[in-house]
Amino acid sequence: MRTTKLPHILVVVFSCILNACVTPEMYNGEDPGPDPTPGDNKKGALAVSPDWSNRSMNVPTPSQFIVSLNNNEYKATFGSGQTDFPDSIKVGNYNLQLYNEASQIQVSHSTASVDGVSGGGIYASPGWFFGAYQAIEIKAEEKTQVTPIMRQLVKQLTITINVEDGGMPRILTAAGTLSGVASAVDFSSTPGLLKSPASVSFSFTKNDELNQLIGVVRLMGVIGSEQNLQVNLTLVNGTTWEPFVSDMSSALSNFNNDMITPQELTNTISLGVNPDVSGFIHDWEEAFDNITIKY
Fold this sequence. Notes:
Low-confidence stretches: 8-39
CATH topology of the largest domain: Immunoglobulin-like
Helix content: under 10%
Number of strands: 20
């Protein structure tokens, strides 16, 4: 029987075909290993259009805001009118944090903290701060559109003290300290989780025409069961009046429930003959829709 011999090269090729022979691509003489898992390097886009409508009257929309994904894994500062995140983002699930920079407020992850002052306590007038936090998903070769609802996390409190019995001309300066206020808020939860009880000190402005002392502070909220106000007066003759002290806990019990509507509380003091005897002579009152609420 006649035998036909195949050339050696054809035998090798035929054998490789039968055995699905694959020769790995070598890099510097080494096997580069398996190909990356499909989708590992896929990316998508993100567009952010925050809703700033829930804010107090006369509080402006921030001109800039910061978008952070997974605690700064991706981070960018957006200017007015900007919506598109500047970088492509790997496919996956993320926690989106959005907030604005505000004076005397520092942000770490999702917690915003008011700066402290020398001598203890926190700043009385930090900037207006907003925050939002939500879960998002970035899909391959798609633009994810999100419209976070920004929450106002700083609220104004005005304390007005009427001075009776002709005592106003005797007052040179007035200063107040309010205890039981929050110095930080974690805005990853709704409502924000208030942290770190502190006190805040501030100066009263004199309105001689109306015989009033007016103090204004901005707070992230009140925390704990007690909020006490102490008012210290210095008279024009150089003497210091015995401090006026008042429990404001009841009057501030609903402060955290509405962070958009400013709160104003009013009380009255009287300067008698003896500077060692003093006190508030009325309950705290709040005017709301032409109704006076007493605490």
